[in-house]
Amino acid sequence: MEHINTAQRAETLMRALPYIQKYYGKIVVIKYGGNAMINEELKHAVMGDIALLSLVNMKVVLVHGGGPEISTMLNRVGKKSEFVNGLRVTDAETAEIVQMVLAGKVNKSLVSHLGTIGCKAIGLSGMDGGMIKASKASEELGFVGNVESIDPKPILDVLDRGYVPIISTLGTDAEGNTYNINADTAAAHIAGALGAECLISMTDIAGLLRDVNDLSSLIPKVTLDDCEQLKKEGIISGGMIPKIDCCIEAIHRGVRKVFIIDGRIKHATLIELLTDEGIGTMFTR
Q: Is 197 helix (H, G, I), strand (E, B) or coil?
């Protein structure tokens, strides 16, 4: 039995070989969020996936949010979290807390976690080197930002030195104001600016479903034209609209493929990138 198991493991590695070759030396952007960030077992699996991909010479860029941690810190200081269309209302005090949590606690804990498994990482925020230039999204939302431009040079510099860049999604304007930017939006713009081979968005859903109550209705592949039709049919609706729009944005900006995968499944990234079956929904032009 041990010989069979060993042979099976070897066969699994050989099946992954064409995919490793396909992505060898290519930039892969992973948007990290949802339950995979707060469940320690899932977090460890994600960090292991990133380490493995990096060791086989994929240029992994990790873009992260941190909504639950921000909410926890706001609760500690007695501030109530308010949301408009899924975006956190961010006054000046909240913006300071967001910066502290995202660029500090969350970012550096991910850098440390990767380091413990032998993968070198450097933490960045969109504020570093003027990477993410932003503007105010609306007066109602306060210091929530739209992405105006991305300077990929700080990220490329880190990649060229063999490190995994871990990016918190903060941006600044010409006056030095700090803005909280939606991680899906930031990841789409960053992937486009880097000319990434693919963008992987980790979520708490299986992917795009024809019927939200039926996991077997997963749509494995979608084109941009399909997206318009699926919106008309009401299959893409509600909270899925902004997520899908970010996928479309990334494709328009030159990213070859975008995947929405279920981050609640251990090693979902490896399953999507290195197997025939995949696990979520792939978006292409």
A: coil
